[in-house]
Design brief:
The chain is mostly beta strands. It is 5% helix and 42% strand. The strands form 5 sheets. Strands 1-3-8-6-5 form a 5-stranded antiparallel sheet, with no helix packed on it. Strands 13-14-19-17-16 form a 5-stranded antiparallel sheet, with no helix packed on it. A 4-stranded antiparallel sheet has the order 7-4-10-11, with no helix packed on it. The protein is rod-shaped and about 110 Å long. The N terminus is likely disordered.
Length: 337
């Protein structure tokens, strides 16, 4: 009689254990590497970053299954203004550079944000994984495809957009768990199953525009003093101009050397017989500032605008009595930036 009572008690305990409700926890976290573009030199620049997200489930008492429906949103970024199309990078002067983020290698599908009026398409992911006694997980990977389109008038500098604030990125998901058999995939990342705890995946996008300067045209147009009869009795003044295109905010200096036939710091033109005419080149129209080649001293300085700049060169031949002939010299123009 006592044995029968013990067996019934054991059976009741076993049934009670299997009837207890299951308490499980599903969490999802993601990471994104930084997106680093090569320096912008005028054409299209492409780059990629890597996204990884892991969903984990713990607490199922026996072999089980979990399914997750997820939306991964990227917004405009901390430094991106308020638009997703185009997105942008900025430098320390708040100069903008357009860029965009995509979910596909063809760069035709913008990686957007759920609920955004302009670009509402987030990255969509679905997870389906087994959950053994000690828990289970699944990791999915995706590529972020970035592009800086061709654009002109960009200022030099380092450009950045930080997607590091809580509002810049978002992982949203719904999940379902099953002890025995398959779980049911939630209808979307916002409907069906249980609501998961949202999270972020901070990253930065980096670009740059290098300092650059180009002389245009090359060579610099000649300075011609013309034909002069007899001795030179008064100043002969002429000008030419140096054409320069530098990227915006690029600081530059232009130096002129002393030519081929200088005597110390005195510039001279020479004829075929080896005779000379003294002349000088200046940075200003009154011809009081000699144009030399010593950086920070007698060079012409300025800052690029991204557009062509015309920089006058003022020449003067003073009174003198040279021999008859044709005189010339060659000056080397050096741009330092």
């Amino acid at each position: 009689m006592n044995r029968l009572h013990l067996a019934a008690l054991c059976l009741a305990l076993m049934l009670s254990l299997f009837a207890r409700p299951v308490s499980a926890t599903t969490t999802c976290t993601g990471t994104m590497t930084n997106l680093n573009f090569a320096p912008m030199t005028g054409g299209v620049i492409d780059a990629t970053a890597s996204f990884s997200v892991t969903c984990s489930t713990f607490g199922l008492a026996v072999l089980g299954n979990a399914k997750v429906n997820m939306c991964v949103s990227i917004r405009s970024g901390t430094d991106g203004g308020s638009t997703l199309n185009p997105r942008r990078l900025i430098n320390t002067f708040n100069d903008p550079m357009n860029m965009q983020l995509y979910t596909d290698a063809a760069r035709s599908a913008i990686w957007g944000s759920r609920g955004n009026a302009t670009v509402p398409n987030p990255l969509l992911l679905q997870f389906n994984y087994s959950v053994p006694v000690l828990g289970g997980n699944q990791t999915l990977n995706a590529t972020l495809y970035g592009r800086i389109p061709a654009q002109t008038g960009l200022n030099a500098g380092t450009y950045i957009n930080r997607f590091t604030a809580a509002a810049d990125t978002l992982i949203e998901f719904r999940y379902d768990e099953s002890i025995i058999g398959g779980a049911t995939m939630p209808t979307s990342c916002t409907a069906g199953g249980d609501l998961g705890t949202s999270s972020q995946f901070p990253f930065t996008v980096n670009g740059s525009v290098p300092d650059s300067c180009t002389l245009t045209p090359k060579p610099v147009p000649n300075m011609a003093f013309g034909n002069v009869p007899g001795p030179i009795t008064s100043n002969l003044d002429q000008t030419t101009s140096i054409g320069l295109v530098c990227s915006g905010r690029t600081a530059w200096q232009i130096g002129l050397n002393n030519g081929l036939y200088a005597s110390g710091a005195t510039r001279r033109m020479r004829n075929g017989a080896g005779q000379f005419v003294v002349y000088e080149l200046y940075r200003n129209s009154p011809r009081t500032l000699r144009w030399g080649n010593t950086l920070g001293s007698d060079t012409l300085t300025g800052t690029g605008t991204g557009a062509a700049q015309s920089l006058p060169v003022y020449g003067r031949v003073g009174a003198q009595a040279p021999s008859i002939g044709s005189y010339s010299d060659t000056i080397t123009v050096t741009v330092t930036y």
